[in-house]
Amino acid sequence: MSVTSAQKTIYIPYMADHCYILAAAIAANGQPAEVLPLPNEETLAIGLSFCRGRECSPCLSVSGDVVHLTRRPGFDPEEAVIFLPTTTGSCRFGQYTVLMRQILDQMGLQQTKIIGPSANNSYQDLGDDPVRMRRLLWEGMVAVDVLQKLLHRYRPYEQRAGETDQIYKANLERVVAATRAGGGKELVRAMRVVATQFADLPNGQGQRRPQIGVVGEIYLRHNTVSNLNIIRRIEALGGEADLATMMEWIYYTNWDHASNTWVLGQPVEWLKTVVTDRYQRILERRLVGPVAHLLDHPYETPVSRLMSHVSPYFSPVLANECLLSMGKMVETSRLGVCGVINVMPFSCMPGIITAGMAPRLRADLGNLPWLDIAFDAQGGTNITTRLEAFLHQASEFQRRGAVAATS
Ligand code: SF4
């Protein structure tokens, strides 16, 4: 039995385009859902006015988005449900829902519920069929990750400005519609269409730009408003971005849960997690297959490999997001990236750890160019000059690599 009545609308603060998949999957399970607009100056100002300055910038953005929603004409607090995931992890993310609850209560909106996925409720708040919900979410998330890989792979080489964005947008709508229609074969069919549409675009073969890995905090690296459009800036300065995916995080949580249950002697739970992970891998291969020939590295790197990259520097037992950033740094440098950018919200603990470990990692990776960029929610961090210098270093790194390969 669903906790949320079917009349209520679930509002999802925009984090990334993957949120449209979430709304579609919720709708496919019979519940109305709406993704809130991207943050803007007004919503960020609202968020700041409700926070004290010690919160991380994603928290400010999300708070602003939600409060802005409540000020909409006709907003009905009884019929609105806010979607906000939570965690029991090692950073402040677990406190977002606590703060949001306080803010809504302060505003006299005690009736407005907050829900979110957690290991404890198995998505039960989102409909009566959590297994189907998880499959829809996973498939759609993979599809959007792959669409974004294609966008970033092809857009730097487009000959008609805006063409790749148009194709991306049309196909985002396609995969969202396929998710709403139940995913599975619909989504595989959609990915075949995606393949035909990207296949005709120029891809810079023979004149590849330096590839720049973009790692770091998951909200910030995907939210184009909060990260001041970092990917477009990289492209404008002559680079090609390789953005860490959303599915990476899900595979990581599987790995983390499997490791913990193994240590705690819970074989049934461990087995369930391992089987789920394998099943997700199969679904990933099914969906990525149609476009695999268009990408250099189409499939997600196993988390166990990322963790083996990290182990000489930092114990994976100290679980948090910095493990993925460091593991990806090593992995992508072996796959040919010429520089890595670590995006982090101002005062983000995992981001600071990654920045602190970077010199040791870089030293072992041929002094791979590396740039940490801390974003607060106040816009202009004056990153242009630093990015220009960084892209110059990355180009030099690429040139030196090409010379070494031919000598
Ligand atoms: S990862 Fe960083 S930005 Fe995100 S909640 Fe944790 S401390 Fe805040």
Radius of gyration: 21 Å
The first-to-last residue Cα distance is: 67 Å
The helix/strand class is alpha/beta
Multimer state = single chain
Mean pLDDT: 91
Q: What keywords describe this structure?
A:
407 residues; alpha/beta; Rossmann fold; 3 domains; 4-stranded parallel β-sheet; 8 strands; binds iron/sulfur cluster
How would you describe this structure to a colleague?
With 407 residues, this protein is α/β, with parallel strands linked by helices. The chain folds into three domains: 9-127, Rossmann fold; 129-208; 209-247 and 301-407, Rossmann fold, CATH 3.40.50. Helices cover 53% and strands 9% of the residues. The protein is built from 15 helices and eight strands. The chain has helices spanning 18-28, 41-50, 57-70, 96-106, 130-154, 163-180, 185-199, 218-222, 230-236, 247-263, 267-288, 303-310, 322-335, 349-364, 384-406; strands at residues 9-12, 33-35, 80-83, 113-115, 211-216, 240-243, 339-345, 370-375. The protein has a four-stranded parallel β-sheet, sandwiched between helices. It has a four-stranded parallel β-sheet with strand order 6-5-7-8, sandwiched between helices. Helix 1 runs antiparallel to helix 5 (130-154). The chain starts with 8 loop residues before the first strand and ends with a helix. Iron/sulfur cluster binds next to helix 14.
In short:
The protein is α/β, with parallel strands linked by helices and 407 residues long.
Helix-strand blueprint:
Layout: E1 9-12, H1 18-28, E2 33-35, H2 41-50, H3 57-70, E3 80-83, H4 96-106, E4 113-115, H5 130-154, H6 163-180, H7 185-199, E5 211-216, H8 218-222, H9 230-236, E6 240-243, H10 247-263, H11 267-288, H12 303-310, H13 322-335, E7 339-345, H14 349-364, E8 370-375, H15 384-406
